[in-house]
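Example S7 (structure tokens).
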């Protein structure tokens, strides 16, 4: 068997992880953190990690800390055998799949990482405490895996931004790499939660990515044109209960003013049937504007008003 087709070592406890980690040959270790129910989006993160690091650890953990009391933790899809197939195919070295008592041996941790003000807007407003829960587990999993790089999807743009901030603000010795959103052929962003959608929900859900595309197509004309184009798609689909549609600065998440030119985040969230969905598109606003795959490294830092 070649390394690429060997079944990954499954570690359920801290000791098993430490043992599997110690058995890796020398070289960089990358981590891809997931909640399981893996799809092509996750596979793309693993591929990118594989391409750049010697070893890849995938974590599969449904983190209770980031779910609100009325959220979908109990019905979240659990597909471990299929997940293992994907991890095997993608050449993952270790799958760390702990239970909550392994990650939080003393129960609810009294100390958490605070996402601060950026964690209180958009998704954070809809899901209070969500990002504190995310950052706390990401911090712990970085320590436990000892990875030197970590791969996250642009699909969860605010999460990615907050993880970058945490790593910088708290000096985590890790390189954060972002991966463009993987979509179905018709544009729907892949998500483990798409399995909740009925056939008719799925049709309705398409308006999210279509709105983003319409917005991006109007990017050359400026912020209000982008917002107008995106909104005009959403208003045609009353069955999508839109929570927010925003065009914000990539690092402050504040609405960009009309004079703004440069990189911006067009983001949408809403409920379709019983399912809350999010999607976003990085865009360049102004001359030559349009959709971007991911933000450039210095996104939003050198944008100036046009005279
Ligand atoms: P999750 O299992 O939903 O917590 O996602 C785990 C990681 O996969 C996160 O970094 C997500 O941003 C990323 N991810 C989820 N869906 C996609 C997608 N459609 N394209 C790219 N990355 C994704």
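Recovered sequence:
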């Amino acid at each position: 068997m070649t390394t690429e087709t060997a079944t990954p070592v499954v570690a359920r406890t801290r000791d098993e992880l430490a043992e599997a980690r110690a058995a890796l040959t020398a070289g960089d270790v990358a981590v891809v953190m997931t909640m399981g129910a893996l799809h092509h989006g996750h596979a793309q993160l693993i591929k990118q990690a594989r391409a750049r690091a010697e070893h890849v650890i995938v974590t599969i953990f449904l983190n209770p800390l980031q779910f609100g009391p009325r959220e979908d933790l109990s019905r979240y899809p659990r597909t471990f055998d299929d997940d293992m197939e994907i991890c095997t195919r993608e050449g993952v070295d270790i799958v760390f799949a702990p239970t909550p008592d392994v990650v939080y041996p003393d129960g609810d941790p009294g100390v958490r990482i605070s996402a601060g003000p950026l964690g209180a807007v958009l998704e954070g407003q809809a899901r209070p405490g969500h990002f504190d829960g995310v950052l706390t587990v990401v911090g712990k999993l970085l320590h436990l895996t000892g990875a030197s790089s970590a791969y996250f999807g642009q699909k969860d743009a605010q999460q990615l931004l907050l993880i970058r901030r945490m790593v910088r603000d708290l000096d985590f010795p890790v390189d954060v790499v972002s991966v463009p959103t993987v979509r179905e052929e018709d544009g729907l962003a892949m998500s483990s939660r798409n399995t909740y959608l009925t056939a008719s929900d799925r049709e309705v859900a398409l308006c999210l990515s279509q709105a983003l595309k319409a917005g991006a197509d109007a990017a050359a004309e400026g912020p209000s044109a982008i917002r107008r184009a995106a909104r005009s798609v959403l208003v045609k689909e009353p069955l999508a209960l839109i929570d927010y549609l925003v065009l914000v600065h990539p690092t402050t998440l504040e609405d960009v003013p009309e004079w703004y030119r440069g990189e911006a985040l067009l983001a949408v969230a809403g409920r379709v049937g019983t399912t809350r969905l999010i999607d976003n598109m990085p865009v360049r606003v102004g001359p030559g504007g349009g959709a971007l795959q991911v933000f450039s490294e210095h996104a939003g830092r050198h944008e100036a008003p046009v005279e």
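Notes on this example. The chain has a mean pLDDT of 95.
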